[in-house]
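Hello forum,

I keep getting stuck at the same step: I have a sequence, I want structure tokens, and every attempt I make locally crashes halfway through. Rather than fight my setup again tonight, could one of you with a working pipeline run this one for me? It's a single chain of 282 residues.
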Amino acid sequence: MHVFITGATGWIGSATVDELLTAGHKVTGLARSPAAADALEAKGAAAARGDLDDLDALRRGAGAADAVVHLANKHDWADPQESDRADRAAIGAMAAALAGSDRPLVVVDGLSALAGDRPVLESDVDPDGNEHHGVPGVRTIAVRFAPSVHGHGDWGFVQFLADAARRTGVSAYLGDGSTPWSAVHRGDAARLLRLGLESAPAGARLHAVAEESIPTRAIAEALGQALDLPVASVADPGHFGFVGGFFGLHLAASSAATRTLLGWHPTGPGLLDDIRAGAYTA
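Reply #2:
Ran it on my machine without issues. Output:
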């Protein structure tokens, strides 16, 4: 299968390229720079120059492929509306190139829109409509990532928490620290994306979740141990910077239906193990 991937040199995308190539698929990745193109070609993948605002490049890449995995996002935390606009435009362009072909389009999102007082299920519908099901003649598959896709080299939410701990001199949690987060190792997330691309039916919602519920206090304690810093409760989400708005959300999720559908069994280390092993000390 020839797979076109946006975000192909990112944290999850680079692992997904490796996973697909190892499984025998051909990969073309969207590359914003000569360095990104060189990194893809060094792995044995092809590079298509462009970015999320280059809709013609996205149409060409999708149109020439057997499947699309859309992982890129601007992640502009100062202007999330612009990130959403660019994401929707990119998905629309690629979906139009795939329309009527029954080729798969994998789109990804987080769990924050579904945060509540119970674990999120695959059957729960995203109220923001970000999963783009119902494109005629396209096998659209939505993958929801745990708030922590972790491992050595992670630059996501847990790295921001570690940065806040170093900046303030304390590894903190909000309130009593009982708010839960889910987590998945980067390698397990990449394998789930491949399995979903290969066999998930149209309209599937998949959860990249290995650990359903980790108390945020436990995350703070592991970071405190790894960074040799005291651990304390704080009341102000602003202590953490922008990530504080997510650290206070109930972001537990089940992946039971995903595991049954795809035969996916996570094998990577857990989040607390990765933290204690020094994944966030650099």
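The two ends are 38 Å apart (CA to CA). If your local run keeps crashing, start a new thread with the error log.
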